[in-house]
Amino acid sequence: MVQKLSGSELEQRLGKLLAFIRVGNEQPSSGRKTVALSSTPAPPLEEKPLLLLELGSLAFECGLKQLAKDCLDELPQDTVGQPIQWCIRQQVLNCQVDLKEGYNKTVVEGRVQTVNRLEDILTSALRTNDMDLVQVRDDTV
């Protein structure tokens, strides 16, 4: 059975997941009976960027822009050695978060720059021939 969560409950649970990815062995403080995270090994260091990217994408899709931004902030800025698909997904998520700002002249000009940057990123994604990278959503822009 799938349990529906309110926006604040979802944000709280995804925030705990982010804290676990950051720290590793953090115990959730919910009153419900759960598997203790302290007995769960921390994710391997090499998997943390991918977990952060996935969590950031999920948070953005759920409308939790700040949590998505926090995940992006945790990602390493040095992408040397990372697969091109990973770099493109990180850049796309960054553009999506940037596009969800309020409206004023400065923000609109920034959005135009972001859309131009996103166009360049998607052109690069097309060159990889990885169709999982080239998925367009109506609510992205």
Q: Could you provide a short overview of the structure?
A:
The chain has 5 helices and no strands.
Features of the shown structure:
5 helices; mainly alpha; 0% strand; globular
Which ranges are low-confidence, i.e. pLDDT below 50, for 5 or more consecutive residues?
25-37
Q: Outline, from the CA principal axes? A: globular
SS-based class: mainly alpha
Strand tally is: 0
Cα-atom Rg, whole angstroms?
A: 17 Å
Mean pLDDT level? 77
> What's the SSE pattern?
HHHHH
- The amount of beta strand, in percent, is under 5%
Q: How can the largest sheet be summarized?
A: none
Helix content: 55-70%
Spatial gap, N to C terminus: 34 Å
Number of helices: 5
3D architecture notes:
With 141 residues, this protein is mainly α. The protein has five helices and no strands. The chain has helices spanning 7-23, 48-61, 65-74, 84-99, 105-127. Helix 4 (84-99) packs antiparallel against helix 5. The longest helix is centred in the last third of the chain and has 23 residues, at 105-127. The N and C termini lie far apart (34 Å). 15% of the residues are buried.
Task: Describe the protein's topology.
Blueprint: H1 7-23, H2 48-61, H3 65-74, H4 84-99, H5 105-127
